[in-house]
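Bump. Still looking for DUF4352 domain-containing protein structure tokens.
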Amino acid sequence: MYEPNVVGDWQEYDEHAGLRVRVHRLELAEPPRGRDDAAEGLTYFSLRVTVENRGSRHLGVHLEDGQIDVRIGPDGESAFLDWRNSQFIEGFDVYPLRRATAVLYAAGAEASLSLVDVQVQLRVEEEWADRRLWSGGIGAHEGPAGAQQGALRDSLAHQVSVFLQDQAGEGTA
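Sorry for the wait, here they are.
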């Protein structure tokens, strides 16, 4: 069964030896060139997608608009993607032991940001790699009360955290 990655995890690509990708630094952030008028009333956040080459040869990487999909909330509604403020990886040769990072700015209803899913479909050397999914949330560590607590309890990040705590056993932090 295919399971999503947790935000921050690296995902290796079998078809491209040494290539790995991760979605990380999911956080509240204002865009550098100002808010888009279409995002009025929404809360902005940013995330990073890093491509790392641990192989022995350089790889041409493309990660542009349309290759990243961001969904928020328990119903998986599409987040507003601010393409004007985002920075992509457009035809960049990632040499061995090097990285390239895309920075994406998005916005959504603040109540929905505790559940964020990011799907990435990387293009490497003009070939499409398999889509990968990362799940996380903003504010998951703050311990909100009320109805949001139920959504957090069911989130993948919370499930993974509980599993790891159970595996570590008592007496560990």
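Confidence is low (pLDDT under 50) at residues 141-153.

Edit: fixed formatting.
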